[in-house]
Every structure is written in C-alpha cells, then in structure tokens.
Amino acid sequence: MLRTELWSGLRNSNLRNASRYKYDIINDFETLRRELRTIELDLELSSVPSSTSTDKKKSQVSNI
Q1: What residue segments make up the domains of the chain, in order of their start?
Q2: What is the DSSP string of 1-64?
Q3: Is the pTM of this model over 0.90?
C-alpha cells in the first residue's frame, strides 16, 4: 500500500518516467524509496549545466 501511495504521489513527471521500470519490478516500499532517491539525484545532476565546459569554450573562442 505504501508503495502505491508513494508512486501515485510523485509530482515530477521526469522522475516518474525514469523510475517506471523500478516501480514495476520492486515490491518493497523501502527499496523503491531508495531507488527513487537515487534516480532523483541522477536527474538533478544531469540537469545542472557544467560551468567549466562553458568557460573553456569561451576562452577558446576568445583566443581565436
């Protein structure tokens, strides 16, 4: 029951789409919760633009 409530309460559609497979194969609430947190962190890290690569590109352009 907790597993279903957790899943139906997800508001982030990206997290929901990325974790749909885990929801289908994991039957334990605690394990699913841990996996959702891992996926959530991965999504946050992938959405943050890296400033170092942008700075390198700017410096390369200014050298030309």
Answers
A1: 2-46
A2: -HHHHHHHT---HHHHHHHHHHHHH---HHHHHHHHHHHHHHHHHHHSPPHHHHHHHHHHHHH-
A3: no
